[in-house]
Amino acid sequence: MTFYDLLRPILFSLEPELAHSLTLKGLNWGSRLLSSANQDDPRLAVEALGLNFSNPLGMAAGFDKNGEVPDALLKLGFGFTEIGTVTPRPQIGNPKPRVFRLIQDHALINRLGFNNNGQKRLVDRLEKRSEATRKLGVLGVNIGANKESFDRILDYGDGAKALSPYSDYLAINVSSPNTPGLRGLQSAEALGAIIAQVRASMIKEVPVLVKIAPDLEIKELEEIAEVARKMSINGIIVSNTTIERPVKSRNHHKNEKGGLSGNPLFEPSTRVLSQLYQLTKGQTTLIGVGGIESAEDVLKKIRSGASLVQLYTALVYKGPSLIKKIKHDLVELLEKDGLKNISCAVGIDA
Fold first, then answer.
1. Buried-most residue among 18, 93, 139, 187 (CB within 10 A)?
2. Active site residues
3. pLDDT tens digits, residue range 10-55?
4. Could you give the CA distance from residue 74 to residue 76 in angstroms, rounded to a whole number?
5. How far apart are CA 34 and CA 220, in angstroms?
């Protein structure tokens, strides 16, 4: 039994957003007690996006929207963390309640709506990171557009200009289901315009990734793959939350509006991942997200085409010790499969 096993009933007795806020405060306070030494097995090291990752596990965007605890997350053992989604101007998001637990399904539904403190506050916070903490791991920043925006394409440019100096990569979020009309920006024309705007606006040149939805048809995936080829997109994050409800339980929250994350998302997001790997002919770095709870899940994502993976919801249910366990078990799986390192598994099942 871990400390989190004792803590979880207390957190789950609270509203999800309150529990989340307390978790961030705890991480912020406890980070000073965590060692910054990186002792990952070299077989888990990944070279992707022109960057070096000590292991393929990353914290997905949405957990640390305002960049409060990136260093604490890296100290917990992640190879990288992605903060945001951040918008040019602060916004409060959608009305509460807007986060719901589906405990039997190990899932969450959220309709937060890009609630964040805005890019200026984030820049102020990132400027204070020391040189030592910047070496802990890779830091990505996920950028989005304000709900009440005059020009959403310009919003992405604003994000790139403000945040590229402090990030190792930028992720363009055009796939949240909780901002009206946002997913329409996944069309070839809109996506191409956004990528061009982001690249033209960057102060520091960093890799540019796009985060897509798991609910796309094959024709839409073909268009994204073509944009990736034409625009030389550095990477694609597959995937955001789903508006579908592939849940087995009768939880009364399952029909709440919003995006579903967690275990039920694993199969659909992995299927899209495999399709996109084939469509891009393995030429674009893919990050697999959705429903990861074990080393077996990580390896399946990688064998389906991902070079890196991200998780979030599983930590709500299993706690931070999951990170260390996954890395330990991954090494055992590599040995069992006779693979020299984790990158040897990329796409072998796709």
1. 139
2. 176
3. 999 999 999 999 999 999 998 877 776 668 999 999 999 999 999 9
4. 5
5. 44
